[in-house]
Structures are given as C-alpha cells and as structure tokens.
Write a structure and sequence with these properties.
2 domains; six-stranded antiparallel beta sheet; seven-stranded antiparallel beta sheet; 13 strands
Length: 285
C-alpha cells in the first residue's frame, strides 16, 4: 500500500506539467522536445562526466512507467554521445546542477531491443532532476573516500568486538587459548590419532550459539563433512577442526572476522559479533 502512495505522490507532483500538452515544449536542433521547470546557470556536463539525477518516466496519458516505487538514491549515468536524434542522452548535456525539466522521447528508441510496455510509435514523458555533476576524477575521489570510511568503520567495529571478546574470555573462560588470528579455543576432551591435514575429510558435529548462550536453531547439533583447505565453512570452524584429532571435543570462540562478518547468521549470531561453537570431530578420513 505504501508503494502505491509513493507513486501517487509522484504523479501529483508532476500533474501541472504532465497534462499541459506539447505546445509549450521547445525543440532542440536534433529534434528533442523539452521544457524546463527550473533552470540554473551552472556548469553543464560533458562527455565522460558522471551525472546523478532523479528520473521518472510517464506514458502519453501520464501513467508512470518508472520507477514503480520511490527510489532511495539518485541514479547515476556516464554521459555519452547521442545515439539517435532526440536521444535522452542529449538531455544531460543541456542541464546544470539543480535543473529540472521534462523531455519527450520516442518509446521505440528508448526501449530499442526490449519489450515495450506501450504501443509502437508512442512518445514518452521523461522528467529529470539534476542532483549533481562530477568528473571521473571527482568520482574516483568520492569512491576512495567511501572506501576509506568503510575500512575505518570496519576497524572500529573490530576493535570494539575484540575488547568485548577479551572481557568475556577473561571473566568466563580464562583457560582458553588464543591463536594469532584471534580465535580462542578450549579443548574439553582430547581425541586420539594425528591432527587432520589439508585435503583430508573431517566429519564434524557442532552447535553454534551467541556469547549469552542462545542456541542458533539452524546450527544446533549439526553434522557436516568438509575437506580441509577448500574453505567450505567459516574460517573459525575450519581452523578449530585443524586443532583437533578424532573424537576430540572443544569449544571455539569465533570472532566475526573469522565467522559471519557483517552479515551474521540468522537471528542469534548477529553481525560484527563473536559466536561460540561446541564441536566434536567424529571422523577423519
């Protein structure tokens, strides 16, 4: 229901312009018909620039074709040369940041090679609000900044998680051993025979749960067969299996960077949170 309300709001927004006919449109030398609602005097994009814009497409009778619901972010496009007379590409190079305008485009050309939701020969109404114009260099800088911020945020979360896991281990399981990678483990029962090696098949029974003891139903008393070295399970679980021989049982304290990371696992193992796995090695082949 909310989606249709969003669409209805968009249609109301453009009603004063949609139903006014073609008489008020200006025709460019290439044949593209357009009219501006707001027209700024700033720099216009050139070929190779990236434009960020809000885009809405309507039929001749003002039914909305795109988007079906209000977008969360502006669209982006690389400015190219026009492929045909009246191409919507021409619209971009006519607009400055802050401009909003309507363009009439041929449905046959716009949907070339695709299924058309309207009859052939139809003209469509495209409204564009130019949000921003950036050069390839500026776009690269933006992406690098976003990447740097994401890395910094990841490091902050890892530091916070590490401190929390250390507090838990110190208070609840002080005998647990820590590996260089940050995995903690505590062997409850020693097994027999050699430790497994790469390419060997290990059959593991395990239960996963959160630090506060809530069991993950999808990870409860689960039995799996993995081949070491193929990365078939999360890193922490495979690392723990390498530490145990046949019939050994252990408790693994797996930080998220060796577990399910920023996605988590179901409702119990949360993103950026460590998890506990009780495992038993049933067989090594």
């Amino acid at each position: 229901m909310m989606r249709f309300r969003n669409i209805f709001a968009l249609i109301l927004l453009f009603i004063p312009f949609l139903s006014s006919g073609q008489s008020s449109f200006i025709t460019s030398p290439s044949g593209l018909k357009y009219k501006f609602f707001t027209h700024e005097t700033g720099t216009k994009p050139k070929k190779g620039d990236i434009v960020k814009f809000n885009f809405y497409l309507f039929t001749e009778k003002d039914s909305i074709l795109f988007p079906k619901q209000k977008p969360l972010f502006p669209q982006q496009a690389l400015v190219n040369s026009s492929y045909y007379k009246g191409d919507i590409e021409e619209a971009f190079v006519m607009m400055s940041k802050g401009d909003s305008a309507m363009f009439l485009v041929s449905a046959d050309s716009f949907y070339s090679g695709q299924d058309m939701p309207v009859p052939k020969g139809t003209m469509l109404k495209a409204t564009i609000k130019m949000v921003d114009i950036v050069t390839p260099e500026e776009q690269a800088q933006e992406r690098q900044k976003e990447k740097d911020e994401a890395i910094a945020q990841e490091q902050r979360l890892k530091t916070q998680e590490t401190k929390g896991l250390e507090r838990f281990i110190n208070s609840q399981e002080p005998k647990a051993i820590k590996t260089d990678e940050g995995l903690y483990y505590l062997i409850d029962h020693k097994g027999t025979g050699p430790l497994p090696k790469d390419s060997q098949t290990v059959i593991i029974k395990y239960t996963g749960h959160s630090l506060d003891g809530v069991v993950a139903e999808e990870e409860n008393n689960k039995v799996i067969s993995i081949v070491l070295g193929r990365h078939e399970v999360i890193k922490g679980l495979e690392m723990g299996a390498r530490l145990l021989n046949k019939h050994a049982r252990a408790r693994l304290f797996i930080p998220s960077w060796l577990g399910y990371g920023d996605k988590g696992k179901g409702k119990v193992i949360q993103p950026h949170m460590p998890a506990i796995y009780d495992i038993e090695i049933l067989e090594i082949k």
